[in-house]
Amino acid sequence: MKHLIMVRHGKSSWDLGVEDRDRPLKERGVKDAHKVSRHFGAFSVKPDVVYSSPAIRALHTCVIFLRVMKIPYQKFSLADGLYVFSGNELLDFLRDLPDSQDKIMVFGHNHAFTEIVNELGDVHIDNVPTTGLVHLSFNIRQWKDLKRGKTERVVIPKELSI
């Protein structure tokens, strides 16, 4: 059994006039990351490894989750393969994951995340919003065999009252 927990980066700022990879989170992005990580952390689903896009907004969102969920930094890696915006490129990254890792958490970007949760999950999601989390499970042993699985949980920040 494999588990994939996908988190879209938090709300980011366009105000600084920096390159796309360097856009920071807005205050709302920081607050939503705390809210969603506290909520999801209550379910005791701990990833074997956490990967983040190198974009600052994704990395900052990821670090908040690591701290709030008390995930050791040794389980964290930056992954250039997550700085993608198409589902096909993201699927290539996912199918290349080491089979020894059963529970994976990834931080990245739309439109790739929305495409993949709809291709691989059994619940349609119009749009994974900023700081949206989708937990999928798959009855497979190898990541290369990734195909439609089950949508275990969808966490949308604005739907949380925490």
Molecular structure report:
The chain is of the alpha/beta class. It has one domain (2-159): Rossmann fold (3-Layer(aba) Sandwich), CATH 3.40.50. Helix content is 28%, strand content 20%. It contains four helices and six strands. It has helices spanning 27-41, 56-68, 87-95, 112-120; strands at residues 2-8, 49-52, 76-78, 103-108, 133-138, 150-155. The protein has a six-stranded mixed beta sheet, with helices on both faces. The longest helix is centred in the N-terminal third of the chain and has 15 residues, at 27-41.
Structure described in brief:
28% of the residues lie in helices and 20% in strands.
Helix/strand layout:
Elements: E1 2-8, H1 27-41, E2 49-52, H2 56-68, E3 76-78, H3 87-95, E4 103-108, H4 112-120, E5 133-138, E6 150-155
Helix pairs in contact: 1-2, 3-4
Please report the total strand number as a whole number: 6
CATH architecture: 3-Layer(aba) Sandwich
Order of helices and strands: EHEHEHEHEE
CATH fold description: Rossmann fold
Q: Classify the helix fraction into a percent range.
A: 25-40%
How much beta, percentage-wise? 15-25%
CATH superfamily, called what? Phosphoglycerate mutase-like
Low-confidence stretches: none
Largest sheet: 6 strands, mixed
Distance between the termini: 31 Å
The coarse overall form would be: globular
**Average pLDDT, to the nearest integer?**
95
Output the CATH class name: Alpha Beta
- Structural class assignment: alpha/beta
Return the domain count: 1
Strand order, sheet with most strands: 3-2-4-1-5-6
Q: What's the number of helices?
A: 4
